[in-house]
Each structure stands twice: as C-alpha cells, then as structure tokens.
Amino acid sequence: MGEYRVRCVKDGSEQPHFSLSCPNDDSLLRADYKAKRLDLKDFPGIWRFLDWLPVQGIIPEACQGSVTYRSLGLAGVLGLKNLFISFSGYWPEKGARMTTCSFKDLEAPPTVQRLKEKGGSPTLVVASAGNTARAFAQVASQTGQPLVLFVPEKAQKRIWTTVEPGPVKLVAVQGDYYDAITVAEKVQSRPGYVPEGGARNIARRDGMGTVMLDATLKIGRIPDHYFQAVGSGTGGISAWEACLRLNGDGRFGSNLSRLHLAQNVPNAPIYFAWKCREPDACCADMFDDVLFNRRPPFAIPGGVKDALEATKGEVYGITDNDATAAKRLFEQSEEIDILNAPGVAVAALQQAVSLGTVQSDDIILLNITGGGVERVKEDCTLHHLPPDITIEASHWEDAIEFLEAGA
Fold first, then answer.
1. CATH number (domain holding residue 241)
2. 312 is in which domain, residue-wise?
3. Count of alpha carbons within 13 Å of 176, Cβ hemisphere only?
4. Residues 218-253: tens digit of each pLDDT
C-alpha cells in the first residue's frame, strides 16, 4: 500500500521519503509508485487509491473523494455530448459529502497522514486564502493534529469546520494571501513547526490527482480535455501527473488530458506568464481572491509551464463579469450552488466552446473545485473559527511571540 520512491523531476535522483525539494536544483519531486496498475483498495472515498498515495495508512473519518457524473444540464446549454463534471463539495444526492465544500478536502487527509507517519508530533503550519484552511482545520480537528493557520484578515469568515474544532490556532494577517504566506514562512522555520509544503508536497498533489483517477474510472478512458480554475496551478500539475500514471497502467489510453487552466484577471500571474505578457495592475477586489497566488510554481522543473507544454494546454484570463455569469449558468443548469472559483472554470469552458478549441464530441472533464455550501448548511452545524490573534504582516514576530507563549 502506497509503496513508492521520491524522485527529482529534473535529474531523476532519489530523495528521502519526506523531502520537499531536491538539493541539486529547484525541481519538484514526484512519487514513483511501485504499483503501476490502478487497483482499487477496499477503503472508502479517496483511500481507494491508496496504491497511488504516498502514505501507508488511512484516516477513516477523513475519507471523502470527488464524484464524477455526466452532465445533462450544462452540457445541453453548451452543446457538448460528452461533458463530465468532477464535483468536489457537498451534494449528498450525487454522493458528494466533502463537508468543507472544497477539493482541498482531497489534499489535507493524505498530508496529515503522511506527517503522522513521519513522526515527531510537530505543529503543522498552513497559509491559505480560505478553502485550504477549512480543509486542514477539519482534518486536524478530527485527528488531533496541532495546526496553525495563517489567513488574510478578510478571509476569516471562510474558516469553519463541521466538527468540533480541535487543536487549531488561527492567525489573521492584515494583507493578502502573499502576506499570509510570508508570515507563515517565518513561523514554520522555528523548532517544533513544519510547513505543509504547498505544491512541493507530493501528498497534496497526489491527493488532488485522485480527481483525474476517479473521472477516468467513471468514463472508462482518460478525458481529452481538463478544465480547472487555479491559483498556484498545483491542481493542473496534479492532473498531468495522474495522466502519466494512467498512461503507465495501459488500460485507459495513452493520451494526456489537455489542460485548460483559468485565472481571474487582472490578478492572474500564470495567465500573463503563459501569454508572455506584462501583468496588468493588480486589483484589490476580485471575483475570487483564493485564485490569486503571487508566487505560483510556474517555471520550475515539473511545474505549471511543463504541465501545459506537455499537454499542449491553454490558460484563460476570465473577467469578473464573465465568471459571475458562468457561475449563475452552472447553478441554474446543474441545480447546485458552487463557489466562485469554479465559476471561473465554467467561463473558460464557455470560451473554449465558442472558439472551437473543444469539439462537441470531445470527452471533457470540468473540475468543479467547490460547491454545496448552501446545501451543507441544511445538514450540518458550521463551527466558525475566530482568529486567536490579528497581526500586521510586517510584525510577524508578534505571531511567534503569541504562539510560543501558548506552547
């Protein structure tokens, strides 16, 4: 179960199991699994894919996976015959029970499980604009994993769990996501703390990669196209890596899904980098600020640029107005509420259809990376996490002083 080696994408060198980077270069690392065939395990949800997750055990109470279904509503509106939707959120009628309503629920459990297997009982440090923080707060509360969250002050309202909160500290940072990351980096270098690793953590990437695995099993082959809204672009990397493993299996085709990644302009560094354009001035308000990461893993070996080039991919810059309209279209045609970010992905799909980039017969996977918040409120009690402290980004020492005083 989960037997693997960790290798540098650039030079192929083997690295220690729990490494986050290669000492020889700035490349991402990748799990090289012993199992080359996708054989499902008799476990619930995401843990069915244990052979392709970098862990030895599971967290039974944190097990929910994405659900893939064939679209009728949105597909009919767009004139697509083979549109499949991967839904990561809360929609019990479809079998989707991610109670934090985001596909970050796919990243947090394997990351926490891998940390438990590493040992040492460190406090996990996570920086987030909202969705990631919710997912990690949930699994930390379920498992008793000590956790410190750093979120932009305006994102506080997004931080809640559907279980009684556990050993979780919330630090609100005055500024944006980049400021939260900056403060988190100061804290995670202290003894007793450990970073979750972001795109460099193979557990996070391979957890997200289960979206492609689940969809391929549902469809019976690797999709022709994959659409997702991205901030760091890690989800796109994960989909590409999952396709590489599926290619090695040999039963699902030999193609790589063409990546169609979408960002919310003007705060769209991946879009501007891919188009070789100077970025427009950033906007303080945007349709969904969880999609704004100032430092995406774009040009590093194994990063977003490599994934786009390998799959002949495309990046779309989506305006607030187009995203708003697309979100409304999805909710009306599919009859479920979604987060703002997947509205950006729907708008990208609309653009691709209108430009003829995708054809009506193509097999298309649309990753709806979050939804069902209104639905989960009907069935669950939301426990909002108030900040334990609010700090200015330049005063990061205040966070360290606060955390060490409470240690």
1. 3.40.50.1100
2. 67-102+204-376
3. 15
4. 999 999 999 999 999 999 999 999 999 999 999 999
